[in-house]
């Protein structure tokens, strides 16, 4: 474990003690699950997207998360305004550039947001490769590339942008360029439930309100891995998995997190 | 019990017999749960928000509900047009001014809607205080004030606007200024599930289509209290609570409601 | 069984083998469930609605589905652009004209989309009657007419537009004018869960990516009937039904589908 790293169990304790307000600008598909994930884990989500108020709202939040899933021009303008307001107020923010490889509109929007310097950048392998200017094998909203194939791109993005970069997949990879780790665990049922990744980005925002960005990204990845592992045991398919996953997020204790062996430093 | 009051069990019977169409203009986060709550309890929800059609739709509904959760200018224009059309047709409507204390945009929008005289006004304590022009301790979408602290504001709003005012919390308070009641019950898991309050406003719309406004607000509060109590017993966390809550809404009989001791008149 | 018909069990095998990308433009209420239904059954949904990108996205999908539930002008423009792009690229698309009988705006929008010649048209009886220019007894989003009452209208629409037409209800009816079938099964709990019909249209898109339109519509109806039947047995109300239904969609084998007696050719 690196010096000065806040372990996930301590991060979880801080999240539940402070119940931070998290300003979420996310896609229509993910709003319900993303809010419930944050509530279950211990945060206080608020979905606010109007250009008329995002600059007033982001500064009062503990963190901001921006997800480009169901993008459109008024939402993109609000995302840019919210990121600017967060930066001005010292509020950390998380970028989740959904399917940025799929269309030129989506690629350009992701680059515009990336230039605003998120504290954490989360994506699947195809998304991270596309952000780094490389072509991958993504299809629709799904990655067509392995996490390993995107590790160099993740390190390069971390170096260039100053963001912590998390590449999610069966085994996640996370780096701030100088430090790097892998997080294993979770469930094969996770990709069968929509908006799990988007919700993970929201949870990274919750943790980013209480611990530094790398520690926050790791805490969210580890908590998802443990809740996914517990959720799989308590479920029979993707429907009951989602239910059991939320129950697990709320029920997992810091002790369980510290005993779980999901995290490996590289 | 006041004279001429329709008790919740009778209101529930009427709801299920008439299956009223409820025109809902609600936020993106709540749409799924709000529709499922109304369907489970016995109503027929329809989510319709375009300016091009709300004035055609509201008059054919039994009630209209307006929730400002994920507000934006085109939606606000549609909310105003729908409220006007409902008023013109004698259709009762419910206002749920989400987080009106959080930004100037949201505060102004809530006041514009309140001037259109809803039959029922529902909010948490911080929202009701803010509507009455008082400052509270709300944060994001969550109340930072106790229900008790907002009772005077609720009575004043009821007197000034003619609306039935419901302040929701661990113990709810509801008044039309001349009459007042408290509703206890429910579950600590309710605030851990997103959009429960928004869905309650939708359910008040369902009841407002079949009984007078005070009776409708009380019926929705009592049904939520009972379904929350039953749902807690059948759940292990917030994920399974939401599932069990919907099952309970559909399964609760009028007899169970009349036997439950959630309601106290003041 | 007609010549050259792909039975539902074979269609399901193909769906799971190819995991087709399905471009969904659907309503806010249905997005979560529609995505989860497609994921559980075996497809790869992507919700993309901006005019700025739908024409780039539809051609890379295996199918497109358009649902008019929460309609507004920018969405309608995107629906038309997406349908045109799908047609230009030979991508089959599904139209679900929600509540087209309820307002003039909704009726006109549905006709504009119908003129773009969907491969499959899905609606409840009141919607199909309205599309055929007949007046029914629909209320809000719910059908007020029996499936039988809409069968002639369905045949006429199939003849006039070239679409496969599916009328859904307690027993579904599906026709391409020369062939026709009924699909029985499912659960009385299905109408108590919001967005089940919208999600069925999405699933028809998934199957339309791998088998011809009539075969795709039948496969989706039969898979819904079987998952509904299994879901009812594993549930206690509408909340647990939705969960069990998703589990069933993921767990049903092609063998179970071929043994189930839901389909009757006329």
Automatic annotation (TrEMBL), chains A, B, C:
State any GO BP term from the record: thiamine biosynthetic process
Q: Name the UniProt key words of this record, in alphabetical order.
A: ATP-binding, Kinase, Magnesium, Metal-binding, Nucleotide-binding, Thiamine biosynthesis, Transferase
Q: Which gene encodes it?
A: thiM
Q: Name one Pfam family in it.
A: HK
Q: Which NCBIfam families match?
A: PRK09355.1, thiM
The protein, known as? Hydroxyethylthiazole kinase
What's the cofactor? Mg(2+)
Query: What family does this chain come from, according to its entry?
Result: Belongs to the Thz kinase family.
Per UniProt, where does substrate bind? 47, 195
GO MF terms, alphabetically ordered: ATP binding; hydroxyethylthiazole kinase activity; magnesium ion binding
Signal peptide coordinates:
none
InterPro entries in alphabetical order = Hyethyz_kinase (IPR000417), Ribokinase-like (IPR029056)
Q: What is its EC number?
A: 2.7.1.50
Magnesium as a keyword of this entry, yes or no, is yes
Query: Cross-referenced CDD domains, in alphabetical order?
Result: THZ_kinase
Q: Pathway membership of this protein?
A: Cofactor biosynthesis; thiamine diphosphate biosynthesis; 4-methyl-5-(2-phosphoethyl)-thiazole from 5-(2-hydroxyethyl)-4-methylthiazole: step 1/1
The positions annotated for binding ATP are: 122, 168
Q: In which organism is this protein found?
A: Palleronia pelagia
General function of this protein: Catalyzes the phosphorylation of the hydroxyl group of 4-methyl-5-beta-hydroxyethylthiazole (THZ).
Q: Which reaction does it catalyse?
A: 5-(2-hydroxyethyl)-4-methylthiazole + ATP = 4-methyl-5-(2-phosphooxyethyl)-thiazole + ADP + H(+)
């Amino acid at each position: 474990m690196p010096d000065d790293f806040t372990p996930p169990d301590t991060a979880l304790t801080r999240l539940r003690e402070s119940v931070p307000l998290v300003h979420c600008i996310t896609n229509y598909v993910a709003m319900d699950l993303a809010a419930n994930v944050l509530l279950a884990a211990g945060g206080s989500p608020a979905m606010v997207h109007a250009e008329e108020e995002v600059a007033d709202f982001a500064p009062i939040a503990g963190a901001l998360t921006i997800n480009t899933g169901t993008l459109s021009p008024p939402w993109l303008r609000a995302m840019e305004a919210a990121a600017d307001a967060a930066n001005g107020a010292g509020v950390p923010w998380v970028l989740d550039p959904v399917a940025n490889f799929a269309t030129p509109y989506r690629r350009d929007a992701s680059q515009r947001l990336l230039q605003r310097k998120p504290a954490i950048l989360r994506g699947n392998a195809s998304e991270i490769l596309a952000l780094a200017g490389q072509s991958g094998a993504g299809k629709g909203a799904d990655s067509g590339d392995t996490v390993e194939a995107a590790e160099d791109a993740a390190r390069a993005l971390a170096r260039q942008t100053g963001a912590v970069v998390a590449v999610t997949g069966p085994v996640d990879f996370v780096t701030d360029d100088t430090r790097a780790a892998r997080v294993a665990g979770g469930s094969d049922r996770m990709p069968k439930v929509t908006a799990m990744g988007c919700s993970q980005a929201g949870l990274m925002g919750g943790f980013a309100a209480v611990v530094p960005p790398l520690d926050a990204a790791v805490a969210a990845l580890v908590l998802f891995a443990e809740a996914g592992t517990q959720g799989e045991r308590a479920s029979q398919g993707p429907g009951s998995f989602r239910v059991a996953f939320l129950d697990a997020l709320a029920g997992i204790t810091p002790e369980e997190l510290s005993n779980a062996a999901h995290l490996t430093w590289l």
